[in-house]
């Protein structure tokens, strides 16, 4: 029988079911093949988030993604003492449907599936890189430890393949001043500038270069940003860059400083000056220096 609705329209209709109503979506894929092709991408938008507290779900998730790997990738893992179980080719390329990527959740799912394998971080980095290069609609990206991707040039890959991120969380960015850390800051600045309209940004562990990151946010996303959070960042920077921040983030709804130092009341006034929205600032662990 000829489908009554084009697949694209059916997909748009099913989006209104709700991201967390997985049961309804799972039942809907059984209606027919047409519905299945339209709904499967919705079910696989954020699987690591849906299974993060579900041990059984995490154990089922990783084998599906392993089946999607190319033969050379499977051989690479096997050669590095990470055996891949035999499996049938998947009906869909589930990797391409991911829209929410959190590398900590990926590693957690792998650890649950294969607790005894010490090479699980190797698989995690391979999958994260594969998601970045093969997911065309990535909207939210959480990098828990940027330091571990220094050799894979992950920031350049994100900049190359994605320009429509809405949420960007990057942690453990710099630990000390060196050429490597400076390269990470430059790469992150380029990544921020390459995006069209970021809505939420979390930057954590910036001990060098916070001024460059702030100015890149101001240059490209002063109107789109709704939430900004800084964790464990050093704001002791030279120059009067905070004057440029004044009144820049016109639609900001949440500004959060957590565990930062080098701040003073004058700097904070620059952040909030001229803003129409009410800003919540968490002072619980902020060390305010003298004005």
Give a short synopsis of this structure.
The chain is of the alpha/beta class and 291 residues long. The protein is built from 13 helices and eight strands. The strands form two sheets. Strands 1-2-3-4-5-6 form a six-stranded parallel β-sheet.
Can you give a write-up of this model?
Pfam families: F-box-like. Residues 1-47 form the F-box domain. It contains 13 helices and 8 strands. With 291 residues, the protein is an alpha/beta fold. Helix 11 links the parallel strand 4 and strand 5. The mean pLDDT is 83.
Count of the separate structural domains: 2
Count the E strands: 8
Q: What quaternary form is this?
A: single chain
Continuous helix count: 13
Biggest pleated-sheet summary: 6 strands, parallel
Q: Percent range for helical residues?
A: 40-55%
In the CATH scheme, the class of the largest domain would be Alpha Beta
> Which series of helices and strands comes N to C?
HHHHHHEHHEHEHEHEHEEHE
Shape: globular
Flag low-confidence runs.
none
How far apart, in Å, are the first and last alpha carbons? 74 Å
Q: What is the CATH architecture annotation of the largest domain?
A: Alpha-Beta Horseshoe
